[in-house]
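retry 2 of 3: previous attempt timed out while embedding xanthosine-5'-monophosphate. Reduced batch size to 1 and resubmitted. Inputs unchanged:
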Amino acid sequence: MELPEKFADLGLTYDDVLLLPGYSDLAPSDIDTTSRLTRELFLKTPLISAAMDTVTESRMAIAMARQGGIGVLHRNLSIEDQAYQVDLVKRTQTGIISNPVTIGPDATLEQLDRLAGEYRISGFPVVDSDNRLIGMITNRDLRFTPVAEWATTKVDEVMTQQPLITGPSDISREDATALLRSHKRERLPLVDADGRLTGLITVKDFVKGEQFPDASYDAQGRLLVGAAIGYFGDAWERATTLIDAGVDVLVADTAHGNVRMLIDMVRRLKTDPATKHVQVIGGNVATKAGAQSFVDAGADAVKVGVGPGSICTTRVVTGVGVPQISAVYEASLACRAAGVPVIADGGLRYSGEIGKAIVAGADTVMLGSMLAGTEETPGDLILVNGKQYKAYRGMGSMGAMSSRGKKSYSKDRYFQAEVTSDDMIVPEGVEGQVPYKGTLATVAHQLVGGLHQTMFYVGARTIPELQENGRFVRITSASLKESHPHDVQVTVEAPNYRA
Ligand code: XMP
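retry 2 succeeded.
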């Protein structure tokens, strides 16, 4: 009897390879990092923030989309809370806000102030019960009423009344700019022939548009946002509620994606007339067969990574995983032929690894630890010996999976949805902290800058050229030592390197 072959090829990861330099005749302006996120969506910056509760909530998702990437909102929260986060992103930096937050004339200034804080906006159209525009109220109008009177003062007592400067529902960007400029207004409400409010344009959004030229937008000029979903229990309800809130991409967020229930769910999402317009990412897988399952189910991209993450213990707890460069390469063998983009998820520590992932077959990368500790992540600063840190934990850690005062929604990511007692949880991740890193913009600048340099060295103008032309050399542990700074005591910290 012939024994089955037990060993796959040697698995390689980021530290096992370097990219070969190639002939280059590029000017910096020739380089274009635009890449495919899914079958239908492109990103100017191929970076995705991880769906983790210490990485991506609305603030991070907004910051990522402004930098030309995208954030995936984590799912360790109720369906309503996650959908609300989607709404917060979709309301930020919008070409035209088609469903602006409004207030009625009888609301008190106290209620208005609460609404302003919740949505982080400073001005509201005031509408009657028929949605007819009757005024505008902004921070400025509040300034002349003492706070002590806010509970008893009504909106219509201090709002700016009609006649207001308004625009028609189908106003062009140019005409709107001209109107705002000539009347020195910050907001332009849009109304139909009957005076009903149909939209709102704000100067701030226009300015932000200029400030973030690479930002990722949907067809209506709103920032792109992704949200994580599972496959257990109320997963379908979560997916459809997120779609109703305007999510652009649903991301199957599970440690092992090659699972019948999840594959069925992806197939259903991509065939149901109510959901199939939304992009769906399947994952995580680490083999060609796993990627093929999602390609066959109609996924719009496949996410790769079983155990490479900085906070993951899956490989040591279960003994399962595939070194990430090999995993990405294997998955790309199934995806490339079908025109389905690949996401390399987890395990990246330096900007140079973005290019390595792309040459191995990825189109974009998902980052956890590299973005953890930035200003926009959830959580407070932690001071240790005078240095600032922020918490960063695995979604399979005890902290994320146990109740600890609040319900955990992340257990089914690790196949433990039905474990009711915290004592019975088998964690697959750790909890820790990372140094505070400043704003996402400064971190993203170094990451994209590093990728630009990779493309220059390899001689690739575009991401497809990098995928096509890039070649690896396999290296030894002696070479790895040579790659990092050596025989020197580093005295000044670089913004893109930590030992
Ligand atoms: P990095 O290396 O960027 O990895 O910090 C982030 C990715 O790790 C995955 N993830 C986990 N994997 N146990 C795991 O095995 C965990 O507790 C865990 N939490 C997150 C996830 O794919 C993320 O994008």
